Amino acid sequence: MTMTLPTPTGSSSTAIGQVRLAVRGLRKVFADDPRPALEMLHRGATKAEVLHRLNVNVGVAEASFDIRAGEIFVIMGLSGSGKSTIVRLLNRLIEPSEGQIRLDGRDLTALPYGDLVEVLRRDMSMVFQSFALLPNRTALENAAFGLEVAGVKRGERRKAALAALERVGLADYADRYPDELSGGMQQRVGLARALAKNPTIMLMDEAFSALDPLIRCDMQDELLRLQREDARTIVFISHDAEEAMRIADRIAVMEDGRIAQIGTPAEILRAPADGYVRAFFRGVDASRVLRARDLARPPDDGTAGEPARFRYRTDPEGRFRGVLAGDGASVLFGLEPVAAETPIQALLGRVAAAACPLPVVEADGRFLGVISCSALLAALDRGEDAGRGARHG
Ligand SMILES: Nc1ncnc2c1ncn2[C@@H]1O[C@H](COP(=O)(O)OP(=O)(O)O)[C@@H](O)[C@H]1O
Ligand SMILES: [Mg+2]
Description:
The chain is an alpha/beta fold. It has a domain at about 290-380: CBS-domain (Roll). The chain is built from 16 helices and 16 strands. The protein has helices spanning about 35-40, 45-55, 85-90, 115-125, 140-145, 145-150, 155-165, 185-195, 215-230, 240-245, 265-270, 275-280, 285-290, 290-295, 350-355, 375-380; strands at about 20-30, 55-70, 70-75, 100-105, 105, 125, 200-205, 235-240, 250-255, 260-265, 310-315, 320-325, 330-335, 340, 360, 365-370. The strands form 4 sheets. A 6-stranded mixed beta sheet has the order 6-7-8-3-9-10, with helices on both faces. The protein has a 4-stranded antiparallel beta sheet with strand order 2-1-4-5, sandwiched between helices. A 3-stranded antiparallel beta sheet has the order 11-12-13, with no helix packed on it. The radius of gyration is 24 Å and the shape is globular. The two termini are about 30 Å apart. About 40% of the residues are buried. The site of adenosine-5'-diphosphate (ADP) has 11 residues, from strand 2 and helix 3.
């Protein structure tokens, strides 16, 4: 699997994992004079308190986070929690009331508007929920629209738009009009329009939320496939826990204009920060999200006076060699270790049937730890309500 980062023309190059967007102390209140509301927020007031006291709507009460090059960063939360406001602040469709947004170290909030437009035009594309296609233009013309606005010449933008349509599997539909395309195809055109600019950052606000579940799943796969080809930096807004878990490298959960938790899907499933976060992910099937790596723990090395039941042997490089019965005898189980990336779902039977906790190894054979039956059950037990809110699958 090859991964490349699209090169931002003329701007500093960024390596995968490096911070691209750094957001600090970001606040947005919808008021002509934001100061009284900001003052309340500084003293820790909630969105509801500000609304009650000043009749001012708080879009973002406070947000600080980093988004790294090449990751899909999902922002999720209930309707009204401030997700769209954050995205609009990122590309400066709206002005922050307070705080900093740095793109590759440059403070966007301090840039003069002309420079800003230049930076944003080059580096960011936005995909909306409503497909926002122009009805009297073909798929190709729609896909080329962003480039047209950016002043790219006709021949060049048609070429880029066609290539983008090809990438989303719609090359044969280039001359069709939106009303001749299904909802899923229309959203692919929307995606192609964003891709045609070859942006290094894509902002997707509930981009798939209007689609039927199956088509939505296809689009998620499509996005993941595109992401394997070109690791862009993607900020993906969703209110759907399944979707977030499926596509995210990391998730920020928003609650009333603040970030309740940021973490990988596995981190959030295993240790939700509060009841709100827990409730949000309650219906998610943990066995499909968690991987062997997430549950691997150091093997039990025995308690005082009582030897461990099993000993896990590694070579000097830390690679797994085998398992010994803990009494030091020479019984060596012919035990196949589990690859770290294996989904837990594929392991349930093996863990249950194994004579000892299953060893987990990295791709290079390095021993990571073991998965015991009890650790597995603990990870899958999501409390008494687990599963009740489950959606499709
Ligand atoms: N232009 C606006 N004027 C006043 N209030 C707004 C405006 N835009 C958003 N809000 C308020 O900001 C809060 C966050 O909205 P939004 O970011 O759209 O939430 P989400 O996308 O998570 O549903 C909501 O309470 C909303 O009513
Ligand atoms: Mg929204």
